[in-house]
Specification:
Two copies of one chain form a homodimer.
Chain A (H helix, E strand, L loop, with lengths): L4 H15 L9 H8 L3 H13 L3 E4 L5 E4 L8 H9 L31 H19 L2 H7 L11 H5 L2
Antiparallel strand pairs in A: 1-2
Helix pairs in contact in A: 1-3, 1-4, 1-6, 4-5
The complex binds FE2/S2 (inorganic) cluster (2 copies).
The site of one FE2/S2 (inorganic) cluster has 10 residues of chain A, from α5.
Chain A binds a DNA duplex (30 and 30 nucleotides) through α3.
Chain lengths: ~160, ~160
Amino acid sequence: MIFTTKAEYGVRLMVELGRQSGARTATSLKVIAESEALPLAYLERIVALLKKAGLVESTRGAHGGYRLSRSPEEITMDDVILALEGSVAPMNCFVDDTDGSSRVLCSHEADAGQGCATKLLWMRVQGGVMEKLQQTTLAELVAFSHRENTPPPTERENLTHA
Amino acid sequence: MIFTTKAEYGVRLMVELGRQSGARTATSLKVIAESEALPLAYLERIVALLKKAGLVESTRGAHGGYRLSRSPEEITMDDVILALEGSVAPMNCFVDDTDGSSRVLCSHEADAGQGCATKLLWMRVQGGVMEKLQQTTLAELVAFSHRENTPPPTERENLTHA
DNA sequence: TTCAATCCTACCAACGGGGTCGGAGATGAA
DNA sequence: TTCATCTCCGACCCCGTTGGTAGGATTGAA
Ligand code: FES
Ligand code: FES
């Protein structure tokens, strides 16, 4: 399993916020939790990561909630995933324990001038993942998840009922 | 963390076998375990996965050991990783519990005809990983880790003894 | 027959993931 | 002013998986 549910829930949350990015009013976590059937208390901890990364803004108090700090088109998924997972590392020698970033701490490199056999592979894989993440914007995911939201106006009834 | 140490150790093991793919005699796990400083008993379980996948062959008994069943150039890393990890799934909704393969069991798809918001993202990421794995051959990794092994034929004696 | 190897199963400790709880500040509405 | 909602924050807990060990059975060369 590459990603944890933090990433899954966090992406879902972002998509939900992306849907409402036009709205004036912030969206409360409670609404999102119910609409996506996710545990509220857990979501609170997840959205904190997104906030720390500057991807969402919050207003406290009654009628408060969260909204995107940029438009969905300007948010690439590598920012989102990095904020949620800390790093996208194929192996633990890729994650810097101090700050959680993705520096390569290959312990086998210094040995006898030998190249670490696996490093080449992991680097490529990580590159492949990061590439795909950078190429994907939140706006795309929002569009992809359009249900009865902006449907091709025909055959609405196929969706609502069989 | 995308991959477990199974993948790490397994790849190291394959590289080590790849180095000796010219040799007549099979290589024992003990030798590999010592040269790579990996726990022997654990390696036994790992190599079993590789054997089940048909990537290595074994001869039992004294002076037995393992050798590659194909040449390193013909072995792509997706086979290796798949054999070791079972599947490369970005999320558990991608792994079929019955056989461990990588079918997509998206539980959010049927809902009201809505596309699962995250599916698009995970599919792309998985595609990126698989692509990189397929593009990388064992031979490349062996070459990358070339130390004094297939050295410009001088100074052989450095290896056999100091 | 002895030794060195593969093979196989069961067992175990530790860690991280996934989640809950309780409470402490904001803040608008009644 | 009070109250209902929110965001925020830390501690806590359960449990599956990972990483690894132990012990043996089987095979085959010397
Ligand atoms: S030890 Fe992991 S890349 Fe070298
Ligand atoms: S539930 Fe995971 S892809 Fe839809």
